[in-house]
Amino acid sequence: MDHILDAISSDSATAEDFAALSLPESYRAALVRKDDVDMFEGLPSREKDPRKSLHVDEVALPELGPGEAFVAVMASAINYNTVWTSIFEPVSTFGFLERYGRLSELTRRHDLPYHVVGSDLAGVVLKTGPGVTKWTPGDRVVAHCLSVELESPDGHNDTMLDNEQRIWGFETNFGGLADIALVKANQLMPKPEHLTWEEAASPGLVNCTAYRQLVSRNGGDMKQGDNVLIWGASGGLGGFATQYALNGGATPVCVVSNDEKAEICRSMGAELIINRSEEDYRFWNEEGTEQNPREWKRLGAKIRELTGGEDIDIVFEHPGRETFGASVYVTRKGGTITTCASTSGYMHEYDNRYLWMNLKRIISSHFANYRESWEANRLIAKGAIHPTLSRSYPLEEVGQAALDVHHNLHQGKVGVLCLAPEEGLGVRDHEMRERHLPAINRFRGV
Questions:
Q1: Using an 8 Å Cβ cutoff, are 126 and 80 in contact?
Q2: Nearest of 444, 220, 235, 231 to residue 336 by alpha carbon
Q3: Phi, psi values for residue 330, rounded to 5°
C-alpha cells in the first residue's frame, strides 16, 4: 500500500499515474467473523465488548463490477450501525449479506464468512468499473452510504424507497473501515477541501441522516421559526440537527446530559438548553415497564418556560423507547415527530390519544436519498455546516473507538485513521479552513 499512499501524498500525481497503480491482492480491514456471532450470548447489551468482536485483518480484494469503484480510504468513522454489527444486535448482519448474495452473481461477492464494516470514508479513487464516467482515478472523494440497485420503479422518485435499498458497510460488505473500500460510484461525492481526511470522513452518515430527517420534505420539512426539540443535541446526529435548525431560522431546544454538552450547544449558537442530569426526568419506572405521564408534563412545562409559552413544532427523535412517549406528548397540535435509529430500544410506547386527537404526525426517516446526501455534503463543502469530530483512533484500535460510541463516552463523531499515517493531512483550501477553524474544532476540546 506504500506506493498508493505515496501517490496520494504527492501534489504532482496525475489521473494517469493513479490509473497505472497496481492494486494489492489483499488489504487491511476491520471486520466481524461469522463464527463469532454467538460470542456474547446471554450478556446484556452494555457488557458486549466490540474490542473482542472487531478484528483488523487482511482480506482479499473483491472483484470490481460495473458501476463500482475502489477507493483508497484515508479515514473513516464510527457510526452506531458498526456498534450494532460488532455486538450482533438486534440481529447478526450476516443475514443481510446472505440475502444480498442471493440477488445476483455479482452480489454473491458480499456473502462471506467475514463482514468488513464501516459506512463512512474520505479517500482517493483508485479504479472504476465499466460504465463509470463521472469519477476517475485520483479524484478526492467522500462517500455516502446509500446502496441501491434501482432496477424496479419504486426508488426512482426517492432512492430510499428502492426495494433493494441497503446501507453500505452494514447491509453490504467491503465497508469503509479499511485501507480500500468497494463502493457504487454513485455513492461518491467531492471531498470538502478545507477539511482533513478524518474531518471529511466524519459527517457522512449522520449529516445526511440529519438533513433528511429534519430539513427535507421527506422528513420534518423544517421552516423558519419552528421550535425543534433535539434529543442528544451535541451527539453524532444531534450535533448536525442543531446546526441545521440554527442555519434554517428555527429555534433548537437542545436536550443534553451534562454541562459539557450544554456548552457545545451554546458554542454552536443554541440558547435553549435542557440538561437532563439537572432535571432528572424519569419517563419510565425502575423496571422499565410503565411510563410516567407526569414526567412528560414536566418536560412540556420546561419547554414552555424556555420558549415563552410555545410548544414544539418538530421533535428530532432518535433515542427511541426511552423518550418516545414524552416526544409525542410535548409536540404541538399538528406538529411532527421525526424518528430514526432508536438507540435506547425499538419497541416504542406512547399514548395514542395525544397523537390522534391532536393531529400530530410521526414520520419515519432512514438515512437520505442521493440528492439529499449531495445537498448535505455541499453544505459541508461551503462551510455552512461543520464536522462534529471529537477524536480519532488508528484502525488498529477500531474496537476501542466502537466501545466509546457503545458506552456514549464520546462527543460528536469518533474518527478512524486508515491509510492516513497521522491526523491533520489532506487540506488543500487553507484559507477557507482558517476562516472556519473554531467551528471545525468545536468538539475537539471535550
A1: no
A2: 220
A3: -80, -10
User: What's the full length of the chain, in residues?
Assistant: 446
Q: Hunting for cell 455513492 — which residue is that?
A: 187
Cα–Cα nearest to 186, from 235, 149, 138, 234: 149
Contact in structure between 203 and 240 (CB atoms under 8 Å) = yes
The three cell numbers of residue 254 are: 437542545
Measured between alpha carbons, how far apart are the two ends of the chain, in Å?
Answer: 34
Distance CA 239, CA 286 (A): 29
Euclidean distance between CA atoms 395 and 302, whole angstroms: 43
CB atoms inside a 10 Å sphere around CB 281: 19
Report residue 208: phi and psi, to 5°.
Answer: -65, -40
Check residue 446 and give its pLDDT.
Answer: 54
Rounded Cα–Cα distance for residues 272 and 153 (Å): 44
Closest CA to 230 of 192, 268, 193, 197: 268
The percent helix, strand, coil of the chain (3-state, each to 5) is 35, 20, 40
- The three cell numbers of residue 168 are 453500505
Amino acid letter for position 133: T
**Rounded Cα–Cα distance for residues 45 and 88 (Å):** 10
Q: What is the pTM of this model?
A: 0.94
Structural contact between residues 199 and 381, judged by C-beta atoms closer than 8 angstroms: no
Strand blocks (E) in 174-302: 180-184, 188-190, 227-231, 251-256, 272-275
pLDDT tens by residue, 174-209: 999 999 999 999 999 999 999 999 999 999 999 999
Largest CA distance in the chain: 67
Q: How many helices (H) and strands (E) does the chain have?
A: 16, 18
For 71-86, give the DSSP string.
Answer: EEEEEEEE-HHHHHHH
Dist. CA 95–CA 97, nearest whole Å: 5
Instruction: Name the residue with cell 427535507.
Output: 216
Give the tens place of pLDDT for each residue, 261-298. 999 999 999 999 999 999 999 999 999 999 999 999 99
Q: Which residues of 407-439 are buried (b: 16+ CB within 10 A; e: fewer)?
A: eeebbbbbbbbbbbeebebbbeeeebbeeeeee
**Distance (Å, whole) CA 87 – CA 405:** 12
DSSP state letter for 211: I
Q: Please report, to the nearest 10 degrees, the dihedral formed by the alpha carbons of residues 92, 347, 232, 158 taken in order.
A: 70
Question: Which among 80, 79, 74, 81 is positioned nearest to 195, based on CA atoms?
Answer: 74
Would you list the DSSP string of 163-192? TT-EETTTTSSS-SSBSEEEEEGGGEEEPP
